[in-house]
Amino acid sequence: MAQNKDSEGTIITTLKPHSSDGIFSSAASYTFEVNNTYKTVQSGKISYLITTETGKRVKADSIKVKIGPRDIKKYDFDLPDLRPGFYKVNFMINVTEYDDTTRRAFGIKPEEIRSQFGKPADFESFWHNAMTDLKKVKPEYKITEMPDSAKDGRRVFMIEMKSLDNMLIRGFLTEPVNKNKNKKFAVLLGLPGYQVTLGPMSGSDPDIAIFTINTRGQGYSRDVINVKREEYILLNLEDKNKYVLRGAVMDCVRAVDFIFTRPELRHDNIIAAGGSLGGFLAVATSSIDKRINFCSAANPILSDVRNLVHEVDWPFIDIRKYIATRPGLTMEKVLNNLDYFDSKNFATDLECPTLVGLGELDNIAPPNNVYTLYNNIRSPKHIIVFRDLAHEIGPSYSAYEGRWMRDQFALF
């Protein structure tokens, strides 16, 4: 009976970085707190293992620990100096009655991260030619009001238009009901994530209209391109002039064209915003179309793709399978094409204020790669890092985006 009572209890551990966002200007440091609620001494060790984002071992160490009955101990760890970049760290505790691992990520001087790969010499001319091709396509705008979808004091319209390659795409415009006929609304252009369907978006801001666009092959724009989720990013990958993302970016430009046809919308107050693929589209569109006045990109994918190959599973597992079915196609040829769709290459041409968000645990848009994009931006910029999130952002991102946008657009 006495032994059973002595064995009742638990170990509670807390890992605290000495930086609120997990980013350090020099060496990283942590405090590992252990709360022993057992009536017995807990002996063993606490160890850590640092790896690169791809799992390559960098450094490991351990200390012996002895925590008394019902005692709390704190252990400070000063990790070794490391090169600028992001790393993963595992803290392991192995004591008498308890074993556990806490996984985190941290960054060292991320503002110094650069890619060794430049962009193609004809990058700008490639996208200039795409814009020229788009201008040859008559948009044939069709606007249909959807009174049954109206809510939150907003009118809802379905917008249909023709884009590059004469592709039909659809989106939804919601506008606040306003008795002032001369009222003009700033515009939030909402761009879709990977294979995400964007319907009408409401909002409580009476100064902002929201235009959500479904780019080709996504959501409500699947009339011609309607493929499995994993196949979308592979469409015509071997030809940069026919690749699906060339058309998708042009669909976003066509959406801006539509905004400029509407007298009730402000043509000087347009924000392009999206996450994941939508983050990529926001950066790409804002880079090549200077009519956009503010860019917001959360977890943007496809940054620094040549370094991305060995860092993430998606989309390169599917790309390798695709290459295997195409005689003569190689990874190098694919990367030569993807250079024209690398979000870091668009970043250097951004001229509008740009907000970027990332999760330090992201294995789709890794922080090293997102920071490479961010460090290429020359216009006013800000980045928000979420220490314990993966391919997502926290609510503080949207709050900051809204405040900065209202300041930028003078919506007081």
Structural features, described:
The chain is an alpha/beta fold. 23% of the residues lie in helices and 33% in strands. It has ten helices and 17 strands. It has helices at residues 2-6, 123-135, 244-259, 277-288, 305-308, 316-324, 331-338, 343-347, 367-376, 395-408; strands spanning 11-17, 23-24, 29-36, 42-52, 57-67, 71-78, 85-95, 98-108, 142-145, 154-163, 167-176, 185-191, 208-214, 265-275, 294-298, 354-359, 381-386. The strands form three sheets. A nine-stranded mixed beta sheet has the order 9-10-11-13-12-14-15-16-17, sandwiched between helices. Strands 2-8-7-4-5 form a five-stranded mixed beta sheet, with no helix packed on it. Helix 9 (367-376) links the parallel strand 16 and strand 17. Helix 2 (123-135) packs across helix 3 (244-259) and helix 3 crosses helix 4. The model has no long low-confidence stretch (mean pLDDT 96).
Largest sheet: number of strands, sense, barrel closure: 9 strands, mixed
Structural class: alpha/beta
Number of helices: 10
Q: Could you name the ranges where pLDDT drops below 50 across 5 or more consecutive residues?
A: none
Index terms:
412 residues, alpha/beta, 9-stranded mixed β-sheet, 5-stranded mixed β-sheet, 10 helices, 17 strands, 23% helix, globular
Helix and strand arrangement:
Elements: H1 2-6, E1 11-17, E2 23-24, E3 29-36, E4 42-52, E5 57-67, E6 71-78, E7 85-95, E8 98-108, H2 123-135, E9 142-145, E10 154-163, E11 167-176, E12 185-191, E13 208-214, H3 244-259, E14 265-275, H4 277-288, E15 294-298, H5 305-308, H6 316-324, H7 331-338, H8 343-347, E16 354-359, H9 367-376, E17 381-386, H10 395-408
Parallel strand pairs: 2-8, 12-13, 12-14, 14-15, 15-16, 16-17
Antiparallel strand pairs: 1-3, 3-6, 4-5, 4-7, 7-8, 9-10, 10-11, 11-13
